[in-house]
Amino acid sequence: MSVDGKIASRVGDCEFSDDEDWKRVHKLRASVDAIMVGRRTIETDDSKLTIKSFPDFKIPISKFPTRVVVDGLAKTPATARIFTVELEHYPSILATTTNAPKEKLDEIRALGVKVLVCGKGPRVDLVHLMRDLRTMNIRTLLLEGGGTLNFSMLENDLIDEVSLSVAPVLVGGLSATSLIGGKGFDKIKQSCQLELIEFEKLGKNLFVRYLVRRNGEKT
Ligand SMILES: NC(=O)c1ccc[n+]([C@@H]2O[C@H](COP(=O)([O-])OP(=O)(O)OC[C@H]3O[C@@H](n4cnc5c(N)ncnc54)[C@H](OP(=O)(O)O)[C@@H]3O)[C@@H](O)[C@H]2O)c1
Prior knowledge:
By secondary structure, the protein is α/β, with parallel strands linked by helices. It is 23% helix and 21% strand.
């Protein structure tokens, strides 16, 4: 993200990472059971959510992470790369609701993608989704945005840790997506409380890691 907390510019440009930072991201992807994004992130970036190897840096993969797109009405096209690229290695899941058209779900299933129906919608019931993923033995989940889904996960108290790479840029733009979107919390006291546990300069960026502190937990 930028120093002013934007994860994309107002036209959707999100090139904040240099090679060093991308290596960190891909190493992190290789360490989790699943990677999850919101529907609009796929719409904007058509992300593959795979692990890239660099000419000078090969990331060992012991288990390919499962990819999850959160899309209550199943609007993501069947041609999206998350549904079509390297399915033989990386399983893909469409997390949706009973509001999604049945024919679209059949089309997605026919690609070899698993469909999880979580609640009545229009938005995906995230607590339901987390339970379903757990029954599939998914224990570590990397949430990669965007801001709307980030807030929903926070609101449901489903985030344990926050890792940020802050690029030395200021982007601005009221309509540019922020790290945390949604409605937001009214009071700072009610907002998500974090404890700083790590920071380092990584290339041009600042890498920061926090733990989420629950009510009553001492820092
Ligand atoms: N810099 C980075 O690291 C980074 C990472 C990821 C994304 N991004 C950027 O972030 C932008 C997209 O972020 P965004 O905030 O617009 O969208 P988003 O969080 O990717 O997706 C939000 C959409 O997910 C669907 N959804 C279904 N159930 C949901 C639930 N329970 N809670 C929240 N969303 C739910 C909704 O689709 P419906 O609208 O169909 O209801 C909602 O509009 C893009 O520009 C992308 O490039 C940047």
